[in-house]
Amino acid sequence: MLLAGVLAALCSPLRANDQEPVTLEVGAAEPAGGSDLRLPVLLQCPAGRSVSALQFDLLYNPRLASLRSVQPGETAMRGGKQLVSKAVAAEETFRGNVSEPQYLAMRKPKTGPAGGSPAGESVRNETGRERVVIVGLNSRALDSGVVAWVTLRSGDGPGSAPALLQLAHVSMAGPDAKAVPFRIKGGESGAESRKTGRPAAEKE
Q: For the chain, which residues make up each domain, given as ranges?
């Protein structure tokens, strides 16, 4: 029953609240051997906010990087949570909770001679997507910290790491199985997403 309530909350709409929302972001990359990069997904819970379970999509450009693994972070393990991830169908476009500059950067096609598209390649830039669920058979609140570690294999080196991985379609539930307001921070500038605290199902 507890798990069913949490899963229902991850899909439910949020109500307005004066408290600061929870923040989710991709942290700085660190070398993981060879051309692999290890990036943390960071959860920051302000006073008065508690998160017991969360779901999010990891978006990446398969032309720039390949996803190697997604492992639970220290915060998730301390909370007795399990991490489950699964690749979902790539989509031609995405909006979700990704900010406009990030969206445009990841959609930008590579061009061949004289501005043309490379032979045999579509101008469209597909997006790799991995859906991640962090949940447990308990109502324990998660501490602020690393909820997941993502390993990417990059062909461009650590300098381009912030643009390699983005977050979208985030939802969170508290110990009471109610939806929790959130915001996403990400991208090279660290600017907040324009869409905050709304499940992916809601549209502006």
A: 2-13+21-109+123-185
Q: What are phi and psi of 152, to 5 degrees?
A: -115, 145
% pLDDT > 70, the chain: 59
CA angle 22, 23, 27 (to 5 degrees): 155
Coil, strand or helix at 76: helix
Q: Which tens digits make up the pLDDT trace of 69-106?
A: 999 999 999 999 999 999 987 554 444 444 444 444 44
How many angstroms separate the Cα of 85 from the Cα of each of 2, 143, 174? 21, 21, 20
For 69, the enclosing helix (H) or strand (E) is strand 65-72
Please name the residue that has the structure tokens 């490379």: 118
Q: Tell me, what amino acid is at 173?
A: A
Query: pTM for the complete prediction?
Result: 0.68
Q: How far, in Å, CA of 204 to CA of 199, rounded?
A: 11
For residue 73, what are the contacts with CB-CB under 8 A and spacing of at least 6? 40, 41, 145, 146, 147, 148, 149
Q: Which CATH number applies to 2-13+21-109+123-185?
A: 2.60.40.680
Pure H helices in the chain: 2-10, 74-78, 100-107, 161-164
